[in-house]
Amino acid sequence: MPTAEVCAAAARIVDDVVTRGRSLDAVAARHLSKLPLRRHSEARAIAWGTVRWLYRYRPLLHRYLRQPLRRRDGSLEALLLCALYQYHHLDEPDYAVTTGSVEAATRLGRPRARGLINAVLRSHLRDSRAALTSDEETCYATPAWLIKRLRHAWPGHWQQVLESANQHPPMTLRVNVARTDRDSYLRRLAVADIPAQPSNLSPWGVLLERAMPVTKLPGFAEGEVSVQDAAAQVTPFFSGQLAGCRVLDACAAPGGKCSQLLELEPTITSLTALDRPGRVYTIRENLLRLGLNCNVTGGDALVPGNWWDGQAFDLIVLDAPCSGTGVMRRHPDIRVHRRHSDIANYANKQEQLLEALWPLLTPGGRLLYITCSVLPEENDGPLHNLVSRQADARPELVTTAEGLATDLGCQFLPGPYHDGLYYARIRKD
Ligand SMILES: C[S@@+](CC[C@H](N)C(=O)[O-])C[C@H]1O[C@@H](n2cnc3c(N)ncnc32)[C@H](O)[C@@H]1O
User: Fold this and answer.
1) Which one of 12, 146, 161, 395 is least enclosed by Cβ atoms within 10 Å?
2) Cβ(349) to ligand 1 under 6 A?
3) SS3 285
4) 159-216, pLDDT tens digit by residue?
5) How far is the CA of 104 from the centre of ligand 1 (A)?
6) By alpha-carbon position, which residue is closest to atom 5 of ligand 1?
7) In this predicted model, what pLDDT tens digit does every residue of 353-379 receive, in sequence order?
8) Which residue CA neighbors atom 6 of ligand 1 most closely?
9) CA 368 to CA 395: how far, in whole Å?
10) Within this chain, do residues 51 and 21 fall inside the same structural domain, yes or no?
11) How far apart are CA 164 and CA 158, in angstroms?
């Protein structure tokens, strides 16, 4: 049963995301910390689901409001949206959702709005549940501009991409082969009564049947496994040879890809894991838990003069900042925060990063470009520009059976067992 404190906490999270443009992960951590631990998963499910389905239920809510709510009423709108999400998606009795929501208004410091909350929710319940409009924005709970871009980019797959954004993501582990192997770890999970299966995409991947706190995973604290999506685990297929190489991971935090390379290839000559100074602690934490070591550096990849020692790299991994359109189900607020114009801004930044890092590569060296976007403007696009400007840049097509070959790379589209990621490799002549 959703209590008033759970409804209020969920509404505060949604309000911060929708009205103030904050990150769902960041605000959830703050608001959940004020709830008893046993209530976290309930509030989290309501907040995550409400943000995921915002584009569906906001237009519906507006039908029951006599006049639009004011900007300062963001918490009330969020409370109503959370209630609509619960009526339509959770197995809670309607009366309990209504009562919890009405009482939550007091907890949000708006006791006089209890009548409004009650009236709006009851008029919705009196109305047909089938009152949703059938436009695509409502149907896929995704802004129209993004649907248009996806349809244009993937005429045969855009619906799959949108549908997957509304599913719950699988929890996938990467086995640390420096400490154990996948079969042994699967056996440990079976003994602990944790249902799991090997990933078909990654030979190091284990798909859990149900998500769970990492603290309950056998050997997690000892560094036997990391949480990492299966499509993010295929970096070694695309990187080519690692032994004896000087490697730069230019956008490394929190260290998922660089730690995998270190687990697999202890004979990497050196690996520099670079990220913004405020983020490098996340890399250090992960390396420490996994028992790995490398040169962790805080700095701006766009300004190598500030951190580079002048020795060229054999392999540069650029897992670039991007729109995140391949991981929308993990981060439902992406659809709320992104704007049409952001895509060109990301592409611009990606081109700048590629241009800034290209001179750091030794002749014969490889640049591995990765994003978690499914938009060609951020994937093949910036690479086409690099190849046309740099006479010594030569694309090397690397594909796998599961990925779709693009002009210059390989696109994994999000599906039931993995996220949407793009990989491409460019060699320097
Ligand atoms: C997609 S994430 C990297 C994920 C990481 N490779 C992993 O597998 O765990 C992109 C990263 O780029 C970093 N970043 C963005 N702009 C940067 C810049 N100019 N210099 C260095 N890092 C940057 C961000 O801080 C963020 O950590």
Assistant:
1) 395
2) no
3) helix
4) 999 999 999 899 999 999 999 999 999 999 999 999 999 999 999 999 999 999 999 9
5) 39
6) 252
7) 999 999 999 999 999 999 999 999 999
8) 252
9) 10
10) yes
11) 10
- Whether 378 is in the pocket of ligand 1, judged by its Cβ within 6 Å, is no
Domain contains 18: yes
8 in ligand 1 pocket by Cβ < 6 Å? no
| 184 and 280 co-located in one domain | no
Active site residue ranges: 372
Q: At 128, is the pLDDT very low, low, confident or very high (cuts 50, 70, 90)?
A: low
CA of 301 to the centre of ligand 1 (A): 9
**From the alpha carbon of 253, which atom of ligand 1 is closest?**
27
DSSP state of 279: G
Write down the pTM of the prediction.
0.95
| Closest ligand 1 atom to 274 CA | 21
| Distance (Å) of CA 249 to CA 8, 210, 332, 378, 385 | 42, 32, 27, 19, 21
Is residue 107 within 6 Å of ligand 1 at its C-beta? no
The stretches of 143-194 forming alpha helices (DSSP H) are: 144-153, 158-165, 182-191
Give the span between the Cα atoms of 307 and 303, in whole angstroms. Answer: 8
CA of 131 to the centre of ligand 1 (A): 43
Atom of ligand 1 nearest to the CA of 301: 20
Overall size of the chain counted in residues: 429
Do 108 and 193 belong together in one domain?
A: no
Q: pLDDT tens digits for 7-18?
A: 999 999 999 999
Ligand 1 pocket, 314 CB below 6 A? no
CATH of the domain at 123: 1.10.940.10
CA–CA gap between residue 270 and residue 246 (Å, rounded): 5
For 311-329, write each residue's pLDDT tens digit.
999 999 999 999 999 999 9
* Structural domain includes residue 74: yes
Check if the beta carbon of residue 27 is closer than 8 Å to that of residue 75: no
For residue 134, is pLDDT > 80? no
